[in-house]
Amino acid sequence: SSGINAEYGVQPFFKPPIIGHSEKKLFIKRVPARASKRDIERCFDSFGSIKDIEIIRHKKCAFIESFDTKVIALIIHLSSNGVIFRVLGQNVFVERFKFKVKS
Nearest 5 degrees, angle CA 3-CA 6-CA 74? Predict the structure, then answer.
């Protein structure tokens, strides 16, 4: 047995932190210019199902949307605890998605 829990993709004793139900998106910084949606998906889909990926090439960033808040919570938790995510061999940085309110 590999000790992997398919629901979370990490050791079975891990329970992701509880977050609000609206958090189904992540902001990814330093996305390589040649990265495709599939390249980004490969980096994160082992944590759960990815609904959509939007790449903003001129800003070298992307937004990832999941069907499940637990997926986003897990990725944020791992990132804040030193796990490094790589797309095409380059480190990318994960942040919570923040809504900007236009005034």
Answer: 100
Edge to edge, the sheet with strand 61-66 lists 50-56, 61-66, 25-29, 90-96, 85-87
Burial 78-97 (b: 16+ CB within 10 A, else e): bbeeeeebebeeeebebeeb
pLDDT tens readout for residues 55-67: 999 999 999 999 9
pTM, entire model: 0.72
